[in-house]
Amino acid sequence: GQARKLRAMLESAVDAIITIDGKGIITTVNPAAARLFGYPQEAFLGKNVHFLMPEPYHSAHDGYIANYHSTGARKIIGIGREVTGRRQDGSTFPMHLAVSEFEMDGRVHFTGIIHDLSSQKSAEQALRHAN
Ligand code: HEM
C-alpha cells in the first residue's frame, strides 16, 4: 500500500530527512540522517532539532521557529539555505537545508531535507589549490 511505499522511500533516501513538530521536537528520522549525524535513529526521537547544530544556531533555533509562527516570514521554508550541522563527535560540516511545512491532525509540522555538502566543498577546495 501507500504507507509501505512511503516508508521504503524514507528508508532508501540518500539525503537525511527529519520531521519536527511546531516546537522543533523531532518526530521522524530516516537512516541517512542517522548515518550523517552519527547517532542511532532512536536517539533523535523526542529531542529538539537544535541538538544537531553548533552555536549560534543551537541557541537561536527555537527563536527562529517561534519567529516564523508569529510573523509568517519565511527565511528557509521554500527557499533553502547552506548552514552548518554538528555530528555526534562534535565535528561540524556544511549542509544544504530545505524546509517545508505540512499540517497533521490540525497542527503544523515541518520536514527538513539535508544534503551533506562536505565532499563537494573539499573537491572545490582541492580544485582551487590545483590552479
Ligand atoms: C529556520 C538553521 C535544521 C526547521 C532556520 C534558520 C536558520 C536555521 C539559520 C533561519 C533563521 C532566520 O534567518 O530567521 C538550521 C541549522 C540546522 C537546521 C543550522 C542544522 C541541523 C532544521 C531542520 C528543520 C528546521 C532539520 C526541520 C525539520 C526550521 C524552521 C525554521 C528554521 C521551521 C523557521 C522557518 C523559516 O525560517 O523559514 N533554521 N536549521 N531546521 N528551521 Fe532550521
Write a structural description.
- The chain is of the alpha+beta class and 131 residues long.
- Helices cover 35% and strands 30% of the residues.
- It has helices spanning 2-12, 31-37, 57-71, 118-130, and strands spanning 16-21, 26-29, 81-86, 92-104, 107-116.
- A five-stranded antiparallel β-sheet has the order 2-1-5-4-3.
- The longest helix has 15 residues, at 57-71.
- The chain starts with a helix and ends with a helix.
- The structure holds protoporphyrin IX containing FE.
Hetero groups: protoporphyrin IX containing FE
Low-confidence stretches: none
Instruction: Return the average pLDDT rounded to an integer.
Output: 96
Q: Spell the H/E element sequence.
A: HEEHHEEEH
What gap, in angstroms, lies between the N and C termini?
53 Å
Structural class assignment: alpha+beta
Quote the beta fraction. 25-35%
**Total number of helices:** 4
- Strand line-up of the largest beta sheet: 2-1-5-4-3
* Largest beta-sheet details: 5 strands, antiparallel
Residue share in helix: 25-40%
Q: Give a count of the beta strands, DSSP E runs of length 2 or more.
A: 5
Radius of gyration of CA atoms, rounded to a whole number: 16 Å
